[in-house]
Every structure is written in structure tokens, then in C-alpha cells.
Amino acid sequence: MGTVLTRGPTYAEMRHPSRLPPEIRRRALAARSNELDPLNLFNITWRNREDRVRHVVLPRALTGVAANIVVLLGRDFPSGSHKVGPAYATLMEGELAGEIRAGENTIIGPSTGNFGIGTAYIAKLMGYRCVVIMPEQMSAERYERIRRYGGELDLTPGSESDVILVLERTEHFKQEPKNKVLAQFELLPNYRFHRFVTGDAAREAAQGVGNGQVAAFVAAPGSAGTLAAADEIKARFRDCAVVAVEPKECSTLYDNGRGTHRIEGIGDKMVTLIHNVITTDYVALVHDDDCVKGLKLLEQGRPILERQLRLAAGALDHLGGWFGISTVCNIIGAIKTAKLLHLAADQNVVTVATDGFDRYPSVLADLERRSGPIGDSTLARWYDEIFRGATADDILEVRSGVQKERLFRQKREVWSRFGYSDAYLERMKSQSFWEEEYDKIERIDRDLALKRDLMG
Ligand SMILES: Cc1ncc(COP(=O)(O)O)c(C=O)c1O
User: Fold this and answer.
1) Is it the case that residue 5 has pLDDT exceeding 50?
2) Does the Cβ of 356 fall within 6 Å of ligand 1?
3) Is residue 110 in contact with ligand 1, taking CB distance under 6 Å?
4) What is the pLDDT of residues 287-320, one digit of tens each?
5) 324 lines ligand 1 (CB under 6 A)
6) How much distance in Å is there from the Cα of 266 to the middle of ligand 1?
7) Does the beta carbon of 224 lie inside 6 Å of ligand 1?
């Protein structure tokens, strides 16, 4: 073989792995059977073996709305969620800038789970020690995966909505210079990855469905990285409505609410630094337990649903295993959006399944402990209430200058505490800030390609 690629892919190769040297692409696909083979770095992409974006269009009978709801599927990314993309991009950019070096630095991953899993995984493949800082009440499957990848855990009190404690703990680790933090809430590789890679995937998944356009993009923010896809989608479909979904129990963007909730990965009680609030049009609220119950239905109640919806037996089988709790939140958010905007049968709402069911059996076991035995009639009622019953209520338009100012203010409250200057925060109020950050991709890709060749 000619050039040996000792590090990972460029942004362009993550967007289109067909751009990889064919030999690397072939070997990377073969490496999927051994997840700790470093060649899996080249499998960080939304695309499958055939270069198609992994997605599913939800049956209309299930959603109850005319518009097509298209769900991008993140479970088949290495490590089991698309959060591995921002983890890799941040480490890759740090290495390129000469700020992070294998064998010298310890990687710190502040997270509520999937980013931590992705960070532990990437650190393992690229030869780093890794510490994941995360709350102590996340699903058991998350901790197991991090340990499996050799990551060490540093747990902070509380659950999903106590991420501020994770950030404070991160400050402590930052004091030791050999620790390098992959700060997903504040570093722009997260924005770059999702705008460039996920944004392209969203547009492509809509092609061939309905009118082929994206009428709305719906994503529940944790770091708000995924929401960056909106900037790319809007570049093509200017009128696309961008909807951030939050737990009703922790409605931070909606009205500064800050309660605890059960939707792991989202609703982190803050406007993150990398959230470009300029391009967010609406904030929609969804009950947290509806998402857990909805997952129970879609994962373990499909035969009942099929009977209720008069579908053939097995008609929903293809949905099994692909969704997590936040996916159900996004799906409910997508149904609400379709109702709000009165979208027609040729229009598409694109949303995201960040991870799959493998992370949540323990959460459904907990649901049964809380609810007692869940019979067929309960499941049928849940479907009516949660999916059919989703309405256009609890959606706030945030396009006005007043709303943007409020969101900027909330952002400033958090991030000036962590040392960001007023001047920097002020610059983020202009779309040109985000365009400049996005435009860096070309140079980064060029530098990486050059470096890889030199290492060959
Ligand atoms: C399960 C799950 N859903 C949604 C999200 C939110 O994604 P983002 O951080 O890109 O906003 C995360 C983030 O960790 C997650 O783990």
C-alpha cells in the first residue's frame, strides 16, 4: 500500500467517505468488525457502505401528520453515536494546531454520556489517556462503554440537567497543563463538524422524499452541536424553520427554566457557547416522561402499535433498535412542528437519532419499576396521548430581536463566568462570526492532508 494514513479523516472525507483513497475506505469498512481498530476513525460518517446517508422516513400512520418525518440514524457511527464526530474533530484540530500530543497529554471529556463515550473511544484509538467528567445518574450502559474503551470516570452529583457542575469540575482539571479538554459546549470543531457533515447529510436524506427540500430541521440541543446543521441547511433552503426542542421540565431556552428531567443528552440548563442562536427559529417543549414511554412503545410495543394502526404485522420492525430517548423527543418535536407549520404531504421535516436503544434497556427497566406492569391497553393509550396527542402548543417563536437578545444575555451569563470576554461574546451576535469559523474547514483539511502525507 502507498501512503499510510496514521491519523483520521478530513472534514471533507467525513462528509463523503468516497473521497478517501479506495484502499483506506476498503480497509476501514473491513475494520468495522473490530471496533478498536484505529482504521475505524475513517468510518466517522453518516454514510453506509454504499455511501448513502443512513436515515428512515417514519410511516405516516405512526406520526399522524401529512409531512414526511425523516430521521438521520446515528447509531452506526463508531462508538454508537454521532457524538464521536465532534470528539474526533476537536482532538484532530488540537493535534494539528500542535496543542495536543499523543503520549504527552491526557484528554478530558466533559459530558453527559455520548460525548464522553466518543471521547474515550477516540482517545483509545489515537493513543491518549482519557478522563470523562459526567453526572453520576446517567444510564448504566454509558459508564460501561466508557470503561470498555479504557476511559476513567470522574463523576459529579446529579443528572442530565446538572451539567454546570461538570463544567465547574472541568475548570479544576484545566489547571493541570498536561490535561487537554475537548470542550464540546465551547469549542468550534463541534459546530464545524455538524454544520459541514450533518448539515450535508440532512439535505441529502431529504432528497428523493416529497419535494426533496427541508421545510424544517428539528433537534434537541445538548451542546447544540447538532443544531449547527441548520446553518448548512438554511444556506440551501433559506425558509427552513429550525426548531430546538427542550424538556418541558427544563425549559432553558424557552423561559430560563432549569428543572431536572429524564432525557439523557439534552436540556443542559444553559445556552451553550457554540449555539448559533441567530439561526434558531422556534423552541418547542416536550414532556420528558413522554419520551421514555414513547421509547418503550417503539422498542417493545411495536406489535400493539401495528394492530392499533391497522398496519401489517412487522411493518414497524425496521424501526427497532435505532432510537434513544432523545430521538423520541426529536420525533415528538417534529410532529409538533409539522402541525404548527401546517406542512403538506410533499414537505419534509428532518430530525436526528443521536444514538440507539443499546444505551437504554436500564431506563425502560426503571420505567417498569416506576409504573408497574405495562399492559397492551396502557401502551395503546400512551400512543394516543404522546404521538397522536402532540399539538402545536408550547412552541415559542424566537426570531424577533427581543428574543435573540434574551438568548444572547443567557449565553453571556454562563460564559462570562468561564472567562469569555464581552468582546468575543459580542462577536458571536453576528452571522459573520459563524461564517468565518465555518470557512476554516478548508485550511484545516489542507493541513491535515499534508500532515498525513508527511507521516506516510
Ligand atoms: C442522546 C443524545 N441526544 C442528543 C444530544 C444532543 O446533541 P448535541 O450535543 O449535538 O446538541 C446528545 C448529546 O450528547 C445525546 O447524547
Assistant:
1) no
2) no
3) no
4) 999 999 999 999 999 999 999 999 999 999 999 9
5) yes
6) 6
7) yes
User: 450 C-alpha vs ligand 1 centroid, how far in Å?
Assistant: 32
C-beta atoms surrounding 161 within 10 Å: 25
- C-alpha 201/C-alpha 67 separation (Å) is 19
Determine the length of the chain. Answer: 456
With CA atoms as reference, report the closest residue to 260 among 249, 246, 245: 249
Tell me how far apart the alpha carbons of residues 436 and 183 are, in angstroms, rounded to a whole number: 20
Angle at Cα 185 formed by Cα 184 and Cα 190, nearest 5°? 45
Distance CA 118, CA 138 (A): 15
Burial class (CB in 10 A: 0-12, 13-18, 19+), 439: exposed
Whether the CB of 252 sits within 6 Å of ligand 1: no
Among protein residues, the one whose CA lies closest to atom 14 of ligand 1: 265
> What pLDDT, in 10s, does the model give residues 67-105?
999 999 999 999 999 999 999 999 999 999 999 999 899
Q: Does residue 265 line the site of ligand 1, with CB under 6 A?
A: yes
Q: In sequence order, which ranges of 106-188 are alpha helices (DSSP H)?
A: 114-126, 140-148, 163-174
Grid coordinates given for 21 = 483513497
